[in-house]
Amino acid sequence: MSTTLNAIAIDVVGQCGQAAKHVVNAYRVGSERTITGLGGRYAQLLNARKLPLVTDELKTALIDSERRVSGLAIDAIAQASQRAQQAVERITNRTVEGMEVFNAKTAWADELMVVGAVRKIYMPVANLSLGIATRANQASAQLAQRVTSIGKKAKAGTARGVKAQPKRARRTPRKAA
Fold it and tell me: What angle separates helix 3-48 from helix 56-105, to the nearest 10 degrees?
C-alpha cells in the first residue's frame, strides 16, 4: 500500500527467512552431533567389553564400517541442509521481488484518501508483525548458537573422556495398604 508498509513487509520476510536459515543450521549441527556421539558410544561399547566370537580385527572393521556410514549420513544431512538454505534464499528473494513489483504497480494509489486511512489502520499491525518476526529470528539465532556452542563443548569433552552418566533416581518402595 505504501512504501512504509511495503518496507515493513519486506523486513518481515527477511526476518522469517533468516529464522528459517537458523533453524536449518541448528538441525544440521544437532544431527551431526547426534550421529558422531552415537558412533563414539558404539566404539566404546565394542572396545569396553569382551564379546565372544568378536576378535580385535572384527571390532576394528565394525567401528570403521560405522564411521563410514556415519560419514555418509553426515554428508547427506549437510547436502540437504545446503539445499534447504538455498530454497529459503530463493523463496525470500522471489517474495521480496514480488512485493517490490506490487509496490511499483500500485504507487499511483498512495495519495488516495482511502489508502491513507487504511494505512493508518494497518501500520500498528505491520509493526507488530515485524516485532514478532524479529523475535522469532532472534530466538532461532539463539537456538542455533546454543546448539553450535554445545557441539564445541562436546567435541572438547570427547578429547578428555566421556562424562559419567547421571545416576538414576531411586523410587522408594510403597507400603502395602
Answer: 180
